[in-house]
Amino acid sequence: MLKTKLKDIITLFRPYQYIKNLFIFAPLLFSLNFLNIDDVLKTFVCFIFFCLTASGVYIFNDIKDLEEDAKHPTKKFRPLPSNKLSKRFAISLMLVLIAIGLLGSCFINAKVLIIFVIYLLLNFLYSIKLKHIAIIDISIIAFGFVLRLFAGSYAINISTSMWIILVTFQLALFLAIAKRRDDLLLVSQGHRPRKSIDGYNFEFVNAAMVLMSAIVIFSYILYTVSSDVIKRVGSNKLYLTSFFVIIGILRYMQITFVYNNSSDPTKIVLKDRFLQITIILWLVSFILILLGGRLHWM
């Protein structure tokens, strides 16, 4: 019984969603500070407290969507709509997690605390009202990823490149649009996942995905060939990593359009071996080129 209860509590945390919070490490990577142990530790601490705060947000969203989730074909099995955990317990757990997250951010620095507060307020507004407004809903999801970047950069007191901010927002928007396509598929099967779906149709979503995929790739290539980036990295070979970005985007579009599976970007990344290998190859090639530029052997 205790083991089952613990499993339900962990499910309520949605730990698989923590993969999104890895964007907190992006400033550490792109600034070439990943060899600085102090900065690595500060970023890791920020990541942990952000994950706890995010879990508090997920619980709030589950509480707010309790009735809707009970009618959803898959979400109805979550701990709250299935009555495995009580609403009162969920509220208490949510408050504890948010309190720990905010307190932890205070110990990092004031700027990180501000980012945490903005993230909370934005997500509360999203859960209460804004997720029901088409385009605004996906924009807020994308902005959440940008906030993760700022949290990571403020944790180690560095500025975030405009290129990274733009590419991150665009990529997150691309993934959020793909998620809405899955919602449209549910509607076609007789389900109604959210009110904002009235502002979308397959023609719009498909065109938006194609548009955003092109913008993401173009922006990333511009970043890799930027004279400022080449000078800072110490190598003009960073453009080679764009091959993996293009392949990764194509694979995700294949999953979305061919296999009609874009319900949860996080689960797709965690399950799809093709995407995993592509991301690893991008990361390894990126780090090797950064190290090569710093050590002057590339």
Report on the structure:
The structure is a single chain. The chain has about 300 residues and is mainly alpha-helical. Helices cover about 70% and strands about 0% of the residues. α3 runs antiparallel to α5 (about 85-110) and α11 packs antiparallel against α13. The longest helix has 28 residues, at about 35-65. It is globular, with a radius of gyration of 20 Å. The protein starts with a helix and ends with a helix. The mean pLDDT is about 90.
Features:
298 residues; mainly alpha; 0% strand
Topology:
Elements: H1 2-13, H2 26-30, H3 37-64, H4 66-71, H5 87-108, H6 110-128, H7 136-155, H8 162-188, H9 202-225, H10 227-233, H11 242-257, H12 265-271, H13 273-295
Helix pairs in contact: 3-5, 3-6, 3-7, 5-6, 6-7, 7-8, 8-9, 9-11, 11-13
Instruction: Using the alpha-carbon principal axes, give the shape.
Output: globular
Indicate the radius of gyration in whole angstroms. Answer: 20 Å
Q: Return the structural class.
A: mainly alpha
How many strands, which pairing sense, and closed or not: the largest β-sheet?
none
Task: Kindly state the number of beta strands.
Answer: 0
Strand content: under 5%
Q: Low-confidence spans: pLDDT under 50, at least 5 residues?
A: none
The level of helicity is over 70%
Mean pLDDT: 91
Please work out how many helical segments DSSP would assign.
13
Order of helices and strands: HHHHHHHHHHHHH
Q: What distance separates the N and C termini?
A: 57 Å
